[in-house]
Amino acid sequence: MSKVWLITGSSRGLGHSLAEAVLAHGDQLVATARKLEQLQDLVEKYGEQVRAVALDVTNTEQAHAAIAGAVKAFGRLDVVVNNAGYANVTTIEDASDEEWHAQMEANLWGVINVTRAALPVLRKQRSGHFLQVSSIGGRTTSAGLGPYQTAKWAVEGFSEVLSREVKHLGIKVTLIEPGSFRTDWGGASMTFIEANEDYERVLEPMIAYRKDISGKEPGDPNKAAQALITLVNETNPPLRLPLGSDAFKIARLVDQAKLAETERWEHLITSTDYDDIEHEPLAHGMGLPQSSQETTR
């Protein structure tokens, strides 16, 4: 059976590739962007199969209107893709208050707004799937991406809590963690903001890398779109899906390094319990996984 999708940030990059793939697959779509004219190509090509909606994800009223419009147009909502977002490069110190707030609004609050607007619909249906487009930068960090990666780490925590709260309602949640894809995310969409010269040593390698790799990224957004269509048809999808061979390698290295560091400091970590504690204070009450299978639902 065909699915009804809503994708934020449908006008460019991964969002546009996914929108095209969803429609070509025969599904129905509510495509959103800040400016309606940016979605005209989809409307002209796919007609009644798609609804174009102007949506600023930082506006809660618009988020609720977009969700309501999807249900009115197609009768239900199966997949919500929180994809809209952007990154600028500067240091934690040099980013202005306005820059911090703007990136947190777009990259975190946009996800929260659209997710919360969609939850009553999916809860009533007892079905649905949130695809939360995070980043491999939601697992690791890079100098110069403080505001962006702060938001992405928050999206990861928000979405993991969400998955625990809605699993019993038949609602699925998957964090999508892309590596480097050949879109304009690190090109035309990215601004390099001047920083204090004291930070040049840590910023210059990252800036040089971003400029050098732009247009030569290993990831194909069209293949990513096909992977996501496959994902939403899985019975037991993962909570996290790194996307791209580079993302896979980074995720593995980061997870191994974190485990090694934790084990190296086990003596100090475990020295803080009361002496009369006889049981292991395991995480069952906190909802942490008790088996490897539970980590993939």
How is this structure best described in words?
Belongs to the short-chain dehydrogenases/reductases (SDR) family. One of its GO terms (molecular function) is oxidoreductase activity. There is one protein chain. The protein is of the alpha/beta class and 297 residues long. It has one domain: 3-Layer(aba) Sandwich (Rossmann fold). The chain has helices at residues 13-24, 40-46, 60-74, 97-125, 146-166, 200-213, 221-232, 245-264, 266-269, and strands at 4-7, 28-33, 50-54, 79-82, 128-133, 171-178, 240-243. The chain has a 7-stranded parallel β-sheet with strand order 3-2-1-4-5-6-7, with helices on both faces. Helix 1 (13-24) crosses helix 7, helix 3 (60-74) packs parallel to helix 4 and helix 4 (97-125) packs parallel to helix 5 (146-166). The chain starts with a strand and ends in a 28-residue tail after the last helix.
Summary tags:
single chain, 297 residues, alpha/beta, Rossmann fold, seven-stranded parallel beta sheet, 9 helices, Short-chain dehydrogenase/reductase, SDR_oxidoreductase, KR_dom
Broad shape: globular
Give the strand order of the largest sheet, numbering strands 1, 2, ... along the chain. Answer: 3-2-1-4-5-6-7
- Estimated radius of gyration: 20 Å
Q: Assign a percent range to the helix content.
A: 40-55%
Task: Please tally the β strands and state the result.
Answer: 7
CATH architecture: 3-Layer(aba) Sandwich
Q: Specify the CATH class.
A: Alpha Beta
Gap from first CA to last CA: 24 Å
Number of domains: 1
Given as residue ranges, the uncertain stretches (5+ residues, pLDDT < 50) are none
- What is the N-to-C order of secondary-structure elements (H for helix, E for strand)? EHEHEHEHEHEHHEHH
Major beta sheet summary: 7 strands, parallel
Provide the CATH topology: Rossmann fold
The DSSP helix count reads: 9
CATH superfamily: NAD(P)-binding Rossmann-like Domain
Structural class by secondary-structure content:
alpha/beta
